[in-house]
Amino acid sequence: MNLTDYTGLDGVGLATLINSRDVSREEVLDAARAAIETVNPVINAVVEMYDRSSLEAPPSTGPFAGVPSLRKDIHGEAGRFVEYGSRLSEGLVASETDHVLERMRSAGVVFLGRSATSEFALYGTTETTLHGPTRNPWNLAKSAGGSSGGAAAAVAAGAVPIADASDAGGSIRIPGACCGLVGLKSSRATPRRARSQGDLNENVHSILARSVRDLRAMAVQLGDVVESDVAPAVTISSLKVAVSTEPWAPRSEIAPEIALAVECVAREIEELGAVIERARPTFNEEEYWDALTIRLCADVHEQVRAVARITSRTPSDEFLEPMTMRYFDAGARVTSSDMTRAFLERDRVVQRVNDFFNRFDLLITPTLQMLPPELGTAGGHDEVSGPLEHVLLGEALAPNLALFNMTGHPAITVPTAMSESGLPIGVQLVARHGMDSLLLRLASELETRLPWAGRLPVHHVTRVHS
Q1: Distance CA 184, CA 224 (A)
Q2: DSSP codes joined into one string, 372-402
Q3: Distance between CA atoms of residues 130 and 174, nearest Å
Q4: Which of 70, 74, 67, 83 is closest to 27 using CA atoms?
Q5: Are 170 and 124 spatial neighbours (Cβ–Cβ below 8 Å)?
Q6: Domains of the chain: which residue ranges?
Q7: pLDDT single digits (tens) 113-164
Q8: What pLDDT, on the 0 to 100 scale, is given for residue 252?
Q9: What CA–CA distance (Å, rounded) separates 428 from 341?
Q10: Please, how many CA atoms are within 13 Å of residue 158, restricted to the half-sphere of its CB?
Q11: Would you tell me how many other CB atoms lie within 10 Å of the CB of residue 334?
Q12: Sheet holding 68-72: strands in order across?
């Protein structure tokens, strides 16, 4: 199997060939390894490749039987390194395998190595002292997004068809938009989420992909949707849809090309019979950002302390990025009354957004307000005074993503447009709780109407190889 044949198929397509014995699992894995070795020196998306002899044999059948992928470097795989993109965790070995990775393996996925992430998955870009910057295959000077930046860059460049990713505040959707991929942040209340992560957990563990077919198939495997939900044809003539192209962050702007992409998606959905209205959820934004920052500081503090206990390293500038250290220090000062206030504000915001979705079935927004930023401008090295200022700086890029982690609503990014400068543009669709299947149906419809499969980044495996 040559690289053109390999990259021309999505994950389900590769598994179909393997299951029909038109190609062997070994041929596909060899192609994947060759693809990674070809493009990774350019984009720096993969921080470790496993020895061939250490790979476990996947199930012989299944929707992803024999399909190569990468594991995000915050998800543990027993007996292998998990370093969280941090010098504090360098050399750390996982004692057990993450539940979702087990589900992916049971579907036939073969993990070939680890993909880069920002330190402790904290940033909307993937640039660490430990592993260096991950570069966007569309333009090497641009960020691939974060925190699942390595996963996104690898999939966009054709190294693997799908990659393990997670989203606690936009970490699937940001890199998905930066690199021209599809990514779903599922509803909080899906059966699998409740079993494995708890109803209140805002972090979603899934994949980034080039095709909606792969995203849908994995959503079924992970229990985010059931097969019967995704089979019917799209019927949306009864839907009431809100569209927002106004900035959601103080003193920020939306790039005109991005607003135009949102309008284009709205027109396509309107042509399918939906009723369109200009609207967005509203709440006290100043208190929302403050509450988000308090909870983030407390979370970083606990994560860092937990790793420091295991590695016997002292949290300091020697082992942590400068901004991570500021979050850690600020987290030590968070009081119980601060947390109570933050959770009360969260509850108020959740209620306002629930009220909004009592009026609307769907919301269409930009995924990012601006095009992928330059490397070195959006990470943890910015010279700002503290975590709140850093959160606001990052939210100027993507102010309407973490909101839906907080409220638990499902959200998907779809790469429906390209900028004049040759960078992908993502559009976000958000639905009512539990309506993940609707998002997948709409994404599939948009994939047909505004096809993106034929777009290849400048630094794609087939182009680098040729």
Answers
A1: 10
A2: PPBTTSSSTT---SSHHHHHHHHHTT-TTSH
A3: 22
A4: 67
A5: yes
A6: 3-285+342-465
A7: 999 999 999 999 999 999 999 999 999 999 999 999 999 999 999 999 999 9
A8: 82
A9: 30
A10: 28
A11: 18
A12: 46-49, 110-115, 68-72
Which CATH superfamily is 3-285+342-465 part of? Amidase signature (AS) domain (3.90.1300.10)
The tokens of 96 are what?
Answer: 């057990």
φ, ψ of residue 226 in degrees (nearest 5)? -110, 155
pLDDT in tens, 148-161: 999 999 999 999 99
For residue 309, give every residue at least 6 positions away whose Cβ sits within 8 Å of its Cβ, in sequence order, or none: none
Catalogue the active-site residues. 72, 147, 171
Q: Which residue has the tokens 């029909």?
A: 20
Using DSSP, state whether 326 is helix, strand or coil.
helix
CB atoms within 10 A of CB 290: 17
Q: Tokens standing for 55?
A: 């790979």
pLDDT tens for residues 351-407? 999 999 999 999 999 999 999 999 988 655 556 678 998 888 877 899 999 999 999
CA dist 372 and 119 (Å) reads 19
| Residue ranges for the chain with pLDDT beneath 70 | 189-201, 227-234, 378-384, 465-466
Q: Where are the beta strands (DSSP E) in 264-308?
A: 275-278
| Cβ partners under 8 Å of residue 239, min gap 6 | 269, 273, 274, 275, 361, 362
* pTM reported for the whole predicted model: 0.96
Going from the C-alpha of 209 to that of each of 10, 141, 155, 255, the distances in angstroms are: 8, 23, 7, 25
The CA-based dihedral angle spanning residues 334, 380, 170, 424, taken in that order and rounded to the nearest 10 degrees: 160
Asked if residue 316 has a cis previous peptide bond (ω within 30° of 0), the answer is no
